[in-house]
């Protein structure tokens, strides 16, 4: 089953001349971890709003095509109904946490869905545990660190038991440690709970090892889609897309350009050593410098 | 900043454990009582009772001092100003120009000051011992629409956030050589425009994300939502409620039915 399926989808914000998003076809499989890369204004946020029904339910504009979420037509459901399929996490940690305690934050969704009280209590414990905030029930969200805030926002989405999480630049305000923590939790949700994860980000380097697939979005169009290593093989292309390519893949393409043979595509130091030792022993000195 | 906004302190007094609805009602009843009593002695007794409750709330001396400072100032002001405007009665004690200061007016001033003191202090008990979220929960439980309760708790939640935003905008503008505290009043007011505009823009953006977040968390999905934490009346809550009701009822009976001068 496809978690998210877009066919001939176009969306234009009121008063804008071009399409904010123009996707002939995009499918995201159930249980897949997909990272959508793209610069500011590429349409990442628009895509995430389409996935949970905020477009066109709440954000108006000119829209065409069909969006299906787990084989349900998104247009036929309210945002509240879709929230049990798609959990949404926004960029700003501060403005998406509005309760006085972590527990209330996580309970808010199920409370709205009229879930029985003891079930809410179970979900709160479960969701806080999954994001590594066990025992922080009473903490005020404003006293948490940036990374903890984003993890709390994830827990607040998880408590509605969605099958897919869509995160719009969740690591925007986080330090490198916080980012890796966040991605690790997402990866764990995918591996251990079968969660479909769609992350809109610019951080190609860190996400390469967590993602099954990279989708590159430029000017509202998909310009590349495939396994991270394949997409990152051409760093020049990523640069045009406003995405900073991993330094190692830049090194790989520099080496590839200067020598004959198949292009190199390593993303980690281990891969680099392995590929270079096999393919071109004389380059090892250059890389180790 | 937070001291002003959140007087609550985490202490385990019996007042903390009371149902917030009971506290709210008790405070309302005691406020009505303060306005019902017109004699000085009962009012002083009421103030003493309220101060005793405040002491029992185990709130820190610093917070209590901070809060009561305003009340005492107000009481002094009322005592001093009252006789200047209320010149009825005899004997006239002394005159300041055309103003006759009379003895009954002075007593009325003191009485009013004590009454206002009771009224202000009793609400502090509620603030000292009740978390904002419990207060909102109590209001919703008492029939306030959940939307309004949510709006109220969101405003409580975001006031400190906006305080911090304004501070950082001020710092940013100072770093660009804006002198916020120099010049005439008009000059300073004009300078503050460059703080207020980004602050309002930032507030609107936050509100925008917040609206999307609320929808994404199924806000308004059902008319009857459930609640993780319910507030429930315990026997001690009924006792406290009865005491509060009697505290108003008995003096009211005495005053209006039996004509006891209170």
Q: What's the overall average pLDDT of chain B, rounded?
A: 89
Radius of gyration of chain B: 24 Å
* Coarse morphology of chain A: globular
- The portion of residues forming beta strands of chain A comes to 15-25%
Strand content of chain B: under 5%
Tally of strands of chain B: 2
Identify the biggest protein-protein contact and residues per side: A-B, 43 and 34 residues
What's the SSE blueprint?
The complex is a heterodimer of chains A (289) and B (262).
Chain A (H helix, E strand, L loop, with lengths): L1 E11 L8 E9 L3 E5 L6 H8 L2 H4 L4 E8 L2 E2 L5 H4 L3 E4 L12 H11 L4 H14 L15 H13 L5 E5 L7 H18 L2 E6 L2 H4 L5 E6 L2 E6 L1 H5 L2 H6 L6 H12 L10 H11 L4 H5 L1
Parallel strand pairs in A: 3-8, 3-9, 6-7, 7-8
Antiparallel strand pairs in A: 1-2, 1-4, 4-5, 9-10
Chain B lengths: L1 H4 L8 H4 L2 H17 L3 H17 L4 H25 L6 E5 L2 E4 H27 L2 H10 L4 H30 L9 H32 L18 H22 L6
Antiparallel strand pairs in B: 1-2
Helix pairs in contact in B: 3-6, 3-10, 4-6, 5-6, 7-8, 8-9
Description:
- With 289 residues, chain A is an alpha/beta fold.
- Chain A is 40% helix and 21% strand.
- In chain A, helix 4 (102-112) packs across helix 5, helix 4 packs parallel to helix 6 (146-158) and helix 6 (146-158) packs parallel to helix 7.
- Helix content of chain B is 72%, strand content 3%.
- Chain B has 10 helices and 2 strands, in the order H-H-H-H-H-E-E-H-H-H-H-H.
- In chain B, helix 3 (20-36) runs antiparallel to helix 6 (103-129) and helix 5 (61-85) runs antiparallel to helix 6.
- The radius of gyration of chain B is 24 Å and the shape is flat.
- Chain A binds chain B through residues 49, 52, 54, 57-58, 78-81, 83-84, 87-88, 90-92, 94-96, 98-101, 103-104, 107-117, 120-121, 124, 142, 156-157, 160, and chain B through 131-133, 153-154, 156-158, 160-161, 205-207, 209-222, 224-230.
